[in-house]
Amino acid sequence: MPAERRDVLRLGGVSLVGALSGCLSTEGVYINRPSDESTPEPTPEDDGNGADGDDGPDPLEGPIGSLAEATRRVVDEAAWFGTTYDDVYDDYTNALDRAVETILQLENMTAISESDLERLEDVTTYVEEAIETGLEPHFELASRVRSYNDRAIERVERFGERGDRPALNDELESLREYYERLRGLFFRQENLSKDPIRNRLVEFMAAGDPDREDEDDPVHDTLFEFRYLSPIRYVGEMRYGIRYLRGVRFRARAHTEFAVEDRDDPELLGDPAASPAGSTRWEPTYTFSERFEPVAVPEDRRDELEVVVNDWADYDGGPLGVYTEQFVSWPIYVQRYDDFEAAAAARDSLLDGPVFLEPDRTVELGDLEWQQARYRLDGEVVYALFKQFGEFVIVVAPARTPIEDRYVPSRNPGIRRQVTEAVVIRDDDDGDEEPLRIPIEDVEADDTVRIRPGEVIPVDGTVTDGESVVDESSIPGGSATAEKEPDDEVVGSTHNLESVLFVEPSDYVEESWTLPLERSWLRVEGS
């Protein structure tokens, strides 16, 4: 790449809108920074790919193999919901309807014969098979239904043998009502829902081996929003000079059954982040597809999966309306190709064209390094994490800010980074309190931040001492001025106007900017 192009790329990032700033913390993340700030030129030997791709179509091993398998599970499960769920659910409801109709006929008979009992056993078995061959193992339902059927059939046979018609009819009625409940909308939404999805996809998308029975497991604080797209290809014969396109688009949310469904909050008016604006780091004018369009390679692509991972542990209703803007979130763009060769060709076409890979700038997610790549969006430079392995090409967390400069000063959307340092009060070796000027990314939750009159408040937090007036006009929807006293909350990048304030940073200030990614399947450990 010519030096002039590298210089233009570096300078182009300065003017990108603040909503793309990705102002986040590097605390807890290992970042490999090159000593030379100039952009390295890829060598002919490695073509700038570094350790990004695997060596060939042989089975992958170690952490990269685990990542490939985890990604395959996620995409396969999302594809099942997008392409198969509706058909198998129709088969399931048809089996229940057939069973209910048969039971109603038996309830209206004056006597139950041996052949009638066989009919009952046949329709209950048909229901079980519809669940086992369609809904399982995506949902866990078959064992419950089978157990209920076995008990019901045993009681019907026993009551029939002794001629107790009232008890037999009561049992048939109970079985019919049970099937009607399985058929009902409420049961579907609670147990077999397509949106939100609370099945095994949640565990597939989460990092490690989540324990859904443990209420403290981070999986309950994670909201996955996604859109699955099947290949859109020409099908059928040409007619009137036109060949028709066919494809599947399916979007949904996925979270555990123990998570609070914040979608019920009347203030939460936005669609899932995978379709409109999405992450807090982007302006509302960008859709998910638009922000990743420069890195999309459709040739021989089998699936696309657009995912936004949200940390919603501290969501409290908030004032801003679109709920994804209340959370720390990052998007993940997955492209699956027909095979390794097709994925490698897609990677090569990107690196030969719009994407420049920087193998010396990396972030560790678990046991794997992800390299920084950069590309242009509407003429501006965007930095993201990039990896190709097996049949997959994945691009993660695009923002104007390079990975080594990201931090989390505020969870309020639309906030521009206005200062790079903060003055904190810490005890020195003698136990005396001493003011220290440190980078914002080094601020810890147990620090006390001092803000003098006329200074910018560097991080979100709570006032512990002092009274003053703060200019909050930099916050979207904020007031021009607001009086602050102890226990009041302040927002990073607002201005202190009158008196000294001492602020305790919010807990999340010291979090890594990669927190949502650490919650996802992209974090692989111990493989």
From TrEMBL:
What GO annotations for molecular function exist for this entry?
A: copper ion binding; P-type divalent copper transporter activity
Q: Which GO terms describe its biological process?
A: copper ion homeostasis
UniProt source species: Natronomonas moolapensis (strain DSM 18674 / CECT 7526 / JCM 14361 / 8.8.11)
Domain P-type ATPase A: from-to ranges? 421-501
Q: Which keywords, in A-to-Z order, does the entry hold?
A: Metal-binding, Translocase
Judging by the UniProt lineage, the source's domain of life is Archaea
Q: Name one GO cellular component term.
A: membrane
Which residues lie in Acidic residues bias regions?
Answer: 43-58
Q: Which PROSITE patterns match?
A: PROKAR_LIPOPROTEIN
* Protein name in UniProt: P-type ATPase A domain-containing protein
Q: Name one matching Pfam family.
A: E1-E2_ATPase
